[in-house]
Amino acid sequence: MEKLTIKAYAKRHKISIFNVMKMVREGSVKSETVLEDGKEVIYILEDQAQKESTKSQITQCDQTPLSLENEIEALKKEVATLRKELEALKRSYK
Q1: Interhelix angle for 6-13 vs 17-26, to 10°?
Q2: Among the residues of 1-94, which ranges form H helices?
Q3: Per-residue pLDDT, 29
Q4: In terms of Cα–Cα distance, which of 32, 33, 7 is closest to 20?
Q5: Is 7 within 8 Å of 17 (Cβ atoms)?
Q6: Residue 3 has what DSSP assignment?
Q7: pLDDT tens-digit profile of 10-44?
Q8: What's the CA angle centered on 47, arms 42 and 48, to 5 degrees?
Q9: Confidence category of residue 78, pLDDT binned at 50, 70, 90
């Protein structure tokens, strides 16, 4: 069993510190609070079973760069169309 600070846990699993704090408060990860130098420090106790459950909780991006590029191109075309419509409306009001 490994002890990690909230920041180290967030960095290891590539999630935000805020989400780690939520997980600690919900009790979805094992943790302990230790008093160090007059401050309370939260350590997350991580074992293999917990690693697997954390991986299932973290959402993964399933879009490929190619599909993202296609979406960007479609949005650029839509913006161009909207700009043309805006220019036509500006001309009609003059």
Answers
A1: 110
A2: 6-13, 17-26, 48-57, 65-93
A3: 86
A4: 7
A5: yes
A6: E
A7: 998 888 999 999 989 998 888 999 999 999 999 99
A8: 145
A9: very high
